[in-house]
What we know:
Blueprint: H1 2-18, H2 23-30, H3 37-54, E1 61-66, E2 81-86, E3 95-96, E4 109-115, H4 124-134, E5 135-146, H5 151-162, H6 175-184, E6 187-195, H7 204-209, H8 211-220, E7 227-234, H9 266-280
Parallel strand pairs: 1-2, 1-4, 2-3, 4-5
Antiparallel strand pairs: 5-7, 6-7
Amino acid sequence: MALLDGLSKIKRWAEMRHGPRSSAVTMTSLQGWEKTPLAQAIFTEQKDVMGSLLGELFGYHLLEMSCFDQLQLSDSSRINHKFRITPVAGFDAGALAEFEALPLAPESIDVVILHHVLEYSTKPHQVLREANRVLISRGHLVIVGFNPWSLQGAYKIVAQWVGAGSFWRRRSLRPGRVMDWLHLLDCEPVDLQKGFYRLPINHAGLLEKFSFWEKICSRLKLPFGGFYVLLARKDRVSMIPTKPLWNSFNPVAGLVLGKPTSRVPEAVGQRIECKKVRGKK
């Protein structure tokens, strides 16, 4: 027991020092990072992948949630009403709300985008439940995350301990784990794509030189891409309760009774006449 208590204390200490912080603190510390060469290379590939997916999704309302500012990930979507929700005021004119408690009615959104929200959240399960709650039946959920089984994921382990920056203070959520969470919420994974196979170097010239490697790995569809885009569909069907018509239901025969009638069937009338004749004899 003492050993388990010691390990749990070490784990809590590591999460406090190197794990994700609140969404507001994380987004504030990440503000401006999307303008770096590494961020531009990653987000450009993500937009290309998401462009092909969002172009095939239809509906009336699209909700976008991201820990990064000024990305415009949903530009390729054909849905007219697109809006963002952010926990920090002034982020790209998004509505102010927490990711863990969305101020939206249940089953009111057709497409929900979670762009690097789960790995930077202290409550990823609650964020995913809220996204599933506001999603309509047969609606689609687009999850973008960093792949821990990649060169970037390996570098994150070192970067967290040396204090390289807020960008590396995140969870390691592999796609299979997120799929397990989706199955519990009655969501079916539909498509999974990966991208960014280059080294996570924040240098525009070196990133450009390794673009050939990116093309080769993307063509071969290798599994160790730096990010993944997971498309899932909500398969839960909404059930509308109806009031049973107990007044017209026969519990014995299990049939619906019609209105009583004074007309006697012909066969019954013949049997009655036969009985009367036999009685007279």
